[in-house]
Amino acid sequence: MIKKKLAAVLLVCILTFAFIGCDKTPEQEPPPAGGIATAPDFSAHAGDDLVVGGYIGNARRYAGYASNAGKAEYRALYAQYAKEAGLNTIFGLRLAQIAKPSYVEEILDACEQNNVKMMLSMQGLTYPNDVADYVGNSESSPAFLGYDFWDEPGASQYAALEKQMAVFKQDHPDKNAFVNLLPSYATWGLGGQLQAQTYSEYVQKFTETCPSVSQVCLDHYPLIGDMAADVAISSQLSEDWLSDMEENANAAKAAGKDFWCYTQGMAYGNRRVPESAADLTFQNYVSMCFGVKGLIYFCLDTPGEEGDPGEFSGMVYGMIDRDGNKTVIHDYAAAANAQLKSFGYVYKQFAWEDVMAVSGSEDGDNIAFENLDSPLRSSEHFTASANHDTLIGTFTHAQKGLRGYMVVPYVDPHLNHAGTDFMYPDTQVTLTFKSKQVLVYGNGESKVVEIPNGMYTATLRPGQGQFIVPFD
User: Fold this and answer.
1) Gap between the Cα atoms of 441 and 465, Å rounded
2) How deeply is 354 buried, as exposed, middle or buried, from its count of CB atoms within 10 A (0-12, 13-18, 19+)?
3) CB neighbours of 132 closer than 8 A, spacing ≥ 6?
């Protein structure tokens, strides 16, 4: 009897120990690395950067002709300066202005040495008739990206451009056939620059007439202001900038092509000078809200000659001045492009869907927002609010089943420039997701933020932005 009692007691102890040792609910397990769920990993795409280019405004000076301080060594120096600014592509080298294939070949050799691509400009020439006399052997260079067939054509030119591009794409299916379109502030009407009755007609006719073009590209320079010497004394944003972006982004999406656009990197006419890197990041991030995969700065060099009549006369300068020296805008671009490089390869993996314009609770009417034709009004995937006007680009990643959001305050960085008396307050943007974590890219860094209640708030100064990927 005593043995049976001891055996029973021992059995109870064993069962009790076993029960206690196994009593762990999932909540008591240590969380996996990274929190509730492991953050998505995009490291395999590092180095697959956005196209970040600079436009050449004076091809003869670049080629080393005796124009002001033109030097033969510019043919190597410009590619080096482009690389130092964080550019990976050069645009706008007009072959008709150089007319020496040997110079072009030297330029592309320098580009190859600096890991920079070159989009040669065929403007004023005809493909393939003029290749031998103006291009030489440059098409075989690893730095050759393709041809810029025309900068800012009118609609009546589309058919002729398509004829050339179709032949080029047959000859070089892996190269780019590029055309840059006019903005809506060009003159309308059949006798105007657009050669179309409406801007929408101008853009839609392009994608319909030119199926061989590789991208849809727009230049709309939004920083308007008065200048005193080389200092901006006033500033406002172009009211039609966003509607132009929307028109071209939707046309590119419908045609199954990437959307590229230009970034204003200098003063000219009634456009003000960029005052800091924030002026460049602001434009880049707004463009990214519309899904751009290529950004081109106007300009890498400085167009025209000092003293010439026209919009490029006087104290204007790009990243490189007329004497071949780097300017402060070169420094701004290097800083802005370092930001792009830190997350552009992640952003590039997502497909653009739409853009939402969030009116700030502390702001009045925004004509640029009102000019948008069909922005996203609401979403089943998120809600958003902000104290100042904010743009949110929405994206999807089909392979990973993720969504992404490009967020940028729509606030002119001039309002927060050190030279102004008033410092604009930060923008607080709150987004509510169905997820419990977000992967946030911004300010050159990435981080995982846990959001147990699904709410994430970004605090952003003018010119700042974030790319946000909810997950769990």
Assistant:
1) 9
2) buried
3) 101
262 burial via Cβ count (<10 Å: 0-12, 13-18, 19+): buried
Residues 405-428 have pLDDT tens digits of 999 999 999 988 755 556 789 999
What is the pTM for the complete model shown? 0.91
SS3 of the chain: helix, strand, coil, percent, to 5? 30, 25, 45
Maximum alpha-carbon separation in the chain: 117
Bridge partners of 223, per DSSP, are 237
Closest CA to 215 of 263, 148, 160: 148
> How do beta strands 466-471 and 402-409 pair?
antiparallel
Contact 310, 7 (CB under 8 A): no
SS3 of residue 210 by DSSP: coil
Say if residues 287 and 267 touch (Cβ distance below 8 Å).
no
Adjacent-strand bridge partners of 176: 146
Residue with tokens 């006087």: 314
Is the C-alpha dihedral spanning 398, 404, 410, 415 positive or negative?
negative
The total of other beta-carbon atoms located within 10 Å of residue 353's CB is: 16
Q: In angstroms, rounded to a whole number, what is the distance separating the alpha carbons of residues 301 and 295?
A: 16
For 135, list phi and psi in degrees, rounded to 5.
Answer: -110, -30
**Would you say 462 and 412 are in contact if contact means Cβ atoms under 8 Å apart?**
yes
Report how far residue 333's alpha carbon sits from residue 279's, in angstroms, rounded to the nearest whole number. Answer: 10
Identify which of 277, 273, 264 has the alpha carbon closest to the alpha carbon of residue 336: 277
Say which range, 14-18, 318-322, 430-434, has the weakest mean pLDDT. Answer: 14-18
Instruction: Measure the CA–CA gap between 220 and 227, rounded to whole angstroms.
Output: 19
Q: Which residue shows structure tokens 């320079």?
A: 221
Residue type, 402: L
Burial class of residue 380 in the structure, from the number of CB atoms within 10 Å of its CB (0-12 exposed, 13-18 middle, 19+ buried): exposed
